[in-house]
Amino acid sequence: xxxxxxxxxxxxxxxxxxxxxxxxxxxxxxxxxxxxxIAAIAIYIGLNATPSTLGNVTEACIxxxxxxxxxxxxxxxxxxxxxxxxxxxxxxxxxxxxVNFWHWNAYWSLVLGIVxxxxxxxxxxxxxxxLKGPYLALVTLAVAFVWPTVAKKFLEQKVKKNSLKGTHLSxxxxxxxxxxxxxxxxxxxxxxxxxxxxxxxVAYVVVRNLRKSRIGRSLVAVRDNETxxxxxxxxxxxxxxxxxxxxxxxxxTAGWLSAARLDVFNDTSFTILNSIKYLLALFLGGAAxxxxxxxxxxxxxxxxxxxxxxxxxxxxxxxxxxxxxxASFLLGAIVIAFVFIAPFGLVGFVKDxxxxxxxxxxxxxxxxxxxxxxxxERPEESKGE
Amino acid sequence: xxxxxxxxxxxxxIIALDGLSFTIDEGQICGLIGPNGAGKTTMFNVISRIYDAxxxxxxxxxxDLLSVQAHGIAKLGIARTFQNLALFPTMTLLENVMVGGYSxxxxxxxxxxxxxxxxxxxxxxxxxxxxxxxxxxxxxxxFRPAAGLPFGTLKRLEIARALAARPTFLxxxxxxxxxxxxxxxxxxxxxxxxxxxFKLSVLLVEHHMAMVMGISDKVVAMEFGRKIAEGVPADxxxxxxxxxxYLGTSA
Lengths: 385, 251
What we know:
The complex is a heterodimer of chains A (about 375) and B (about 250). Chain A has about 375 residues and is mainly α. Chain A has 15 helices and four strands. Chain A has helices spanning about 1-5, 25-50, 50-75, 85-100, 105-130, 135-160, 185-210, 215-225, 225-230, 235-260, 270-285, 290-310, 325-340, 345-355, 370-375; strands at about 20, 165, 265, 360. Mean pLDDT of chain A is about 90; it is low at about 1-10 and about 370-385. Chain B is of the alpha/beta class. Chain B is built from nine helices and ten strands. The model of chain B has no long low-confidence stretch (mean pLDDT about 90).
């Protein structure tokens, strides 16, 4: 400690922001605290919340899973999709139909949903090879528009009704959530809540692992400069179509969860408005960050929820605005204002603020292999002991 | 090592390359010169498989490159730099070089998703990328994003990234463009040094005549998609056609 003070005595050492070496004990302490706080909140909600709160959090998890899926595709790989509501809808319909009509186990319907969505996503990735930006947005937009028509035809011809029942996923006995009567609703809500948390966690881990790997670097490389990525050996066709497939498959798990939660759903349940919500949640939280879509989804969901029940009803406003609470108007205004305040999303904003206090410094590069360095075998660096 | 045989490229009615042939031997630095629009970069893009040749063959150690896809080139040991920088601006310099080593890795989607046995390869790639950055005096910028750094720095980064693929043949498209006098001299030294250190053959497209003549073992001069001279720098410099192409003929 004294030596560093002396060596920098010419200019007073800057106390803040404080550097924290990557993977140092202090860094691990921060990480463990972060995970513990989030886990504690999740467990607290799981143990104490009412069925309606649990249902809301589950709904937010569904939104978050879809946003995480979109983040992999749009945030990291640079391929825009306004068609993700279709994948959510496809998996929901697959689950609802196979469980109610073929009497499938609900968990097999999850596998089916994932496979179907992967295949459809992969197929959609093929035209995406030739299209970029607004053109790709248009193609996926068309898919989102076509889905309700397809779903309606399906309902008419196969279900012979105008809606499909949910999967009524009931908690397995080992969970202990098997009360009868009045508590059954709470037990089911608790179970679906944990399903949502677990699926969201899995989606997050999949995207995080991908991002921090060789494949993840190639995804970002393709986003940043396709030609250069190809010259480095990245197979553009393979990478882009598989990424589309994986993103769609993750979105499918959100659809399966929707089917488990909803009593009934129909062709209007998964429209382009859902896709827009996923996009909003993603950009509100911060695209191309790992936590952004999750933070954004929860922020969006609960802001929307709060405004719906608390927004004022101003009768002096002109025209349509005077006819009811101004919830959606306020939500829009807040989102627009937010884009100016934090263009890189909530996560980007918090990161910028945190950087004034702490900076995580990356692990240093391997020292140069000079003959002298090889000769004297230096002991492990001991810091500040 | 590299044999370009009678390669022609047409874009619609425009003939960008017209029956071009030349060879490069192991360990050579070959300069490709010619006035603007002569087809140098087109030749480059044919070798790195960004363009298809209309006719002709390109043999690299016996492999016909024209039957290889763009992403297969790196695995054969061919790397390139770009005339107008084609870096990954949001990535740090270290990550840029690590992407350069993509062709050396094997972790696919499954293993990356599950993170099974990927740690060792990642660590080694990171270490090697760090060594390359140091070798090109970029290590102090390793954790800075590439966006916004000076042009000369990014040109060196392109070289570091190309070397990460452990190439045996390096294509450099106008590495000296936009550099100052001092930087050009430094670059010449760098190119010779990496050629010796990494045992490379180099194909160099360059307008900076002093540099090309100074470091090339062999020079190929082009005009309007055709070869007009090939040989050691001194001969090419004094070739009548080359002088005419650059200075114009007197009436």
